[in-house]
């Protein structure tokens, strides 16, 4: 449930940074840093523990620890509550406290590592894949990048183009799903086609096996068009990009 879990550092690195901080604060103490494979960790099984440090927002968790300890035949821990430090530079949409979630959000838009040079790929245009479900903000981001000069490829529009009469997927789709999917003017009725495939994995795969390669080919042609126009960056807006 963490915000931007992709940007959470590996456990080993976080543990090393924590140890460095603790030993900097008080090097005379012995610190035992352990991973928590569940919400409780050793707090409900270690008989040598005496105190649990909590904040106002985690006190209920500390109380849950004590209930578990009693169930396990262990004495309750003393709960020592501390105040959380407020973030003096937080923005309006961030938490009031100093929060790792806010720190990860601030990394958005930051180049975390240089792009890998792949000799099989041309240096220009640099192609960015933009994906996500309905309502995730793809359209807004694509428009913003377009205003900044990127060449935007909308695969929804390509998806419609492959179905039109004369389009690369038109005849294979009609051959696979029958003339009953056609309107009177010969165009494919996408609602009728949709009713045939959605809920039927085999039929849906038959359709995507026909359509997706054609959309991919059209996208590649659009990338070449961007290159011909001298565009440095190309954005591929696709809801099912990874699939």
UniProtKB/TrEMBL annotation:
Offer one Pfam family short name for this entry: CoaE
Which PROSITE patterns would you find in this protein's record? DPCK
A GO molecular function held by the record: dephospho-CoA kinase activity
- Has UniProt tagged this entry with the keyword Acyltransferase? no
Q: Which domain of life is it from?
A: Eukaryota
Instruction: List GO BP terms, alphabetically.
Output: coenzyme A biosynthetic process
The keyword Amino-acid biosynthesis appears for this protein: no
Q: Which InterPro entries match?
A: Depp_CoAkinase, P-loop_NTPase, Rossmann-like_a/b/a_fold
Entry keywords, A to Z:
ATP-binding, Nucleotide-binding
Protein name in the entry: COASY synthase
Q: What is the originating organism of this protein?
A: Toxostoma redivivum (California thrasher)
Query: Gene that codes for this?
Result: Coasy
